[in-house]
Amino acid sequence: MRAPASPTATRPVMHQRWSELTFVHWRFPVESVAGLLPAELAVETFDGSAWVGLVPFLMKGVRVAGTPPLPWISRFPETNVRTYVTDAAGRSGVWFFSLDAARLPAVLGGRAGFRLPYFWSDMSVSCAATRWTYRSQRRRSGARANLDVRVGPQLDSPDELAHFLTARYQLFNLVAGRLAAATVEHPPWPLNRADLLNLDETVLRAAGLPSPVGPPLVHASLGVPVRIGMWHWMN
């Protein structure tokens, strides 16, 4: 069943654009992912499997609501490792195992303001025609995510699995020991077929995940504008 349309982020606290983005997804055994989640959340499955995504992109136009973008810190590469979950009431969302960013203020703000597991990394994104290249290495641990992607034609209508993996409008986190959620408002992703040409990554293992088995499912997107709401407690 398809997820509902994007909700509206009431009183959004952050505005940004996620651009030149690649979704790389693998199937995982449910038990290998479930053990890394808080007790309040369960793995959301598709075709009986958990799914884990490695998602590199270029963040643009980052600003706090009511303020203009700041040139140096409003544009930077980011890469996240994520999975898909439900809470006790069956509400769907994203759980982030890690988020790498190239700007230290973004890392500090993400950790302090959103309590998310951000890491400061040396990163670059290069998008030339149909060849997109991402490089990321954490400054302390050295965990890396290096990808080369060939972007294909745009999909007229994403299938059910692509929709399941990308139509995500809520993120979960533990804040002060309690389950909280934030609305992530964006239009549907314009998705392209894509092929993974090269992959050198250790960020999944750094998150406690086993090495993925089998070929990944890959999509690319030119991006969407995003508005993020403030955390609210989940009852």
TrEMBL record:
It holds the Pfam family DUF2071. It comes from the Bacteria. This is DUF2071 domain-containing protein. It comes from Acrocarpospora corrugata. The lineage of its organism: Bacteria, Bacillati, Actinomycetota, Actinomycetes, Streptosporangiales.
